[in-house]
Amino acid sequence: MPEGHTLHRIAGRHRSLFAGHRIAVSSPQGRFAADAELLDGRTLRTVEAYGKHLFYRWVDAPNLHVHLGLVGTFRAFTGDGPAPTAGTRLAMVNTETDPVATAYLAGPMTCRLVDDDEIAAVIAKLGPDPIASRRGRAAFVAGLAKRRKPVSAVLLDQSLLAGIGNVYRAELLFLLGIHPATPADAIDEATASALWDLTVDELRIGVKLGRIVTVRPEEIGARLYVYKREGLPCRRCGTEIRIDEVGARSTWWCPVCQPVGVRANNEEQT
DNA sequence: TCTTTATGGTGAG
DNA sequence: TCACCCTAAAGAT
To answer: Which residue among A9, A42, A52, A229 is the active-site one?
Structure first.
């Protein structure tokens, strides 16, 4: 499910399954039916991911912009896949390859046709995507220094950094020993820089593994340090993990490993 | 068979 | 800050 790593995984998979082929496009649910007709039978040129957004570029047809939101899912199959569910907004089928390839999109927040300018406008509102490019550290560090809100809230701001979601924000702050309520502008430059570097590394691990795994060294069955672990012992110090609301969303932290204050644990820097 | 929950974002007030 | 959108899987009954 969707943080930045998921979208880049989907883009890569869909490029390999569909790009360069004529694609049968339909809307089993019906809500995208009129637009699907404009894409049906067209050749998909490529698929791009930026932050949590997906862009499908076609030959002689408008671009498709998809954002999964909280509940959206994109499932892909090769060979005989299942029939689409009733909620399938968009179905793409490539019969030009053997085995055939199918993708079903359900529950997206956004599924619309756009022109190139609209894609540019979407990207212009986003901060650097650490998966798309390692460049962006300076902009991120400068952006943090300008914001007074708690760093845990700021990390979800896609205009500062595109692709981080609720899991990564909790895990990244744990790894650096930063209390979630720390004002963003109270974080020193070295720590902010380390936060960017760690974000790049963790998101890329997520793309590679296909899921968010921050625990190191990898323990059997353990993927995350704090996310959704309230009341359970911290994997490093045994203290009960806490949960609180930040910006209307839950976040989790260890009160010992992430003390109030600005002291960062820079052991993650190598 | 319900009810709940979710890794997200927008727009109204 | 809150209501709301969207679907599917997991959990409760």
So the answer is: A52
Residue A88's identity, in one-letter code, is T
The predicted model scores a pTM of 0.94
Distance in angstroms (rounded) separating the CA atoms of residues A178 and A24: 49
Query: What angle, 0 to 180 degrees and rounded to 10, lies between the N-to-C axes of helices A4-18 and A189-209?
Result: 40
Residues 6+ apart with CB under 8 A from A204: A5, A130, A131
For chain A, helix, strand, coil in percent to 5 are: 30, 25, 45
Continuous segment of H or E residues that includes residue A194: helix A189-209
Compute the C-alpha angle A53/A63/A96, nearest 5°. 100
Q: Which two tokens stand for residue A91?
A: 């179905």
Give yes or no for CB of A35 within 7 Å of strand B.
no
- The pLDDT tens digits of the residues spanning A201-228 come to 999 999 999 999 999 876 777 899 999 9
* Nearest nucleotide by C1' position to the A164 CA atom: B7
What backbone torsions phi and psi does residue A186 show, to the nearest 5 degrees?
-95, -5
Residue from A162, A187, A166 nearest A177 by CA: A187
Cβ-in-10-Å burial (0-12, 13-18, 19+) of A222 comes to middle
Q: Is the CB of A30 under 7 A from strand C?
A: no
